[in-house]
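Hi F.,

I've been meaning to write this up properly since the lab meeting, where we talked about keeping a consistent format for the predictions we share between groups. The idea is simple: the sequence comes first, exactly as it goes in, then the structure tokens exactly as they come out, then a line or two of notes. No screenshots and no reformatting. I'm using this chain as the first example so we have something concrete to point to.
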Amino acid sequence: MGSGKRVILIVMDSFGIGEAPDADKFGDVGSNTMRSCYGSSFFKADNLAKLGLFNIDGVDYAPSLDVTIGAFARMQEASAGKDTTIGHWEIAGIISGEPLPTYPEGFPDEVLDEFKKQTGRGVLCNKPYSGTVVINEYGDEHVRTGDLIVYTSADSVFQIAAHEDVVPPEQLYEYCRMARNILTGKHGVGRVIARPFIGTSGNYTRTSNRHDFSLVPPRATMLDHIKDAGLNCIGVGKINDIFAGTGITEYVYTKNNADGIDRTEEYMKKDFNGILFVNLVDYDMLYGHRNDVDGYAKAVAYFDDRLPDIIDLMRDDDVLMITADHGCDPGFTVSTDHSREYVPFLMYGKGIDPVNYGTRKTFSDIGATVLDILGVKGHVDGTSLFVH
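Output, unedited:
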């Protein structure tokens, strides 16, 4: 079973730390998620700062510390994309040369005709839309006709909204599986998402029965190598969905960041050997996409308050890593989309020297480092930062 080592890898979804060198190609010049949050009176990151957050290259608006307890680096994304799927795949060791397809004009007939044929239902909307707005604009027609509300966003997603009284969630999931099978090759979107809702005309609300059906990663990730070595790969939050279940030995979904941190602490109290891979989604979903600077800042402060408890649960051989998968600057009013930014990398543990690893050319250095720490062989893109 290896050396009994454990890596706790926490992704603060969308917590970018400044525009990447190629931000101009993505329309993101000037974006800086952390700097926007830092300007809020609710921002607090004392414990993250101790790990080295403010000492990272380019963080010139927050006071750096003379001494940190963690190692730190600034990570640049090498993949051709800035979404959750590609970001997490790169963290796990896959640099994606092609972006996942997006549909600013809606999906083509070749996709929708096959979808209608397989589901036996019509399609409404077929445009990029806010998920809360789309159900209130198309909900009545959907309830009357039974046609499915299909929409997308700036992300590589095919979303299907349906009222739970018209299409029960299990039936909706079946329709999503049909769509997932149709959406391959050049139309291989990152995620097909079930978006069930309830309520009456003018008062439709989404339920917590959302489910994501992800594209399978194109090749083995660090998770596959760890699992193949007989170790545990535990996913908390949407990790299992992002990797379409590949390389995962156990997983739990979460309701919000607080729940995600609770589950993380529960797993840390158990015996396991391998990786605990955690996604905390509120930053992105609730605050970044809604340009809510104070909400985002409060979410960072909440995690920072809980961080000492996580550190207290660490065993002698444990290594804690904290990073992000892209940016989503709540103060960048040009857009509510993800932003092409550098992300932070913090690493802490008894055997980790608190050094500055500078600016790294790919998130995949994280995956290589995880394998190195766990003593697992297997090829991933990236170079290990671990000094033996």
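Notes:
The first strand starts at residue 6 and ends at 12.
The two ends are 20 Å apart (CA to CA).

If this format works for you, I'll send the rest the same way.

G.
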